[in-house]
Amino acid sequence: MKLRNQEKGKYAFGIQGMRNVFRNNNGFTFIESLLVLSIFLGVTSLFPLVYQSFYEAEHHFHPLKKTEWELFLIQLRKELHTSQSWSSHNGRLSYFNGDREIWIEKYQTSLRRRVDRKGHEIILQNVQEIHFSWHNNVLQLEVIFLNGDQEVAKFHPYTRKE
What distances in angstroms separate CA 21 from CA 7, 18, 24, 26, 96, one per listed residue? Predict the structure, then answer.
């Protein structure tokens, strides 16, 4: 009998508690709404910072593209330094190194080097567009990579003084 009274009390307390919840029609107070709004604004204001951090981290973890570009420039400058008869047409650069004609041209998404129109040496990857142009006797190379990055390099013809 004693157990039944305790069960009745718990049951009665549960219903009575439910009645109190349904009787409270106040909803959120203005201060509660301001607190929730300030927390929401604080969290959403951090999104641009987090996004920028991920973007910068991605560039720090992918330095190979920049290194590949710099190595390509070093190799091309060294080769152009000892060559003659530079000419650019149709997105290709050709020059003579001794008696060999060397071509630098775009092939699919790569830049390749060919000697006497033979061979297939990849010297730069992930290339979308390439442009060779002459400005004031200076050869200018513009490369647009697949990710949208753009690089520009200038080459001055070497003249031997005798």
Answer: 21, 5, 5, 10, 90
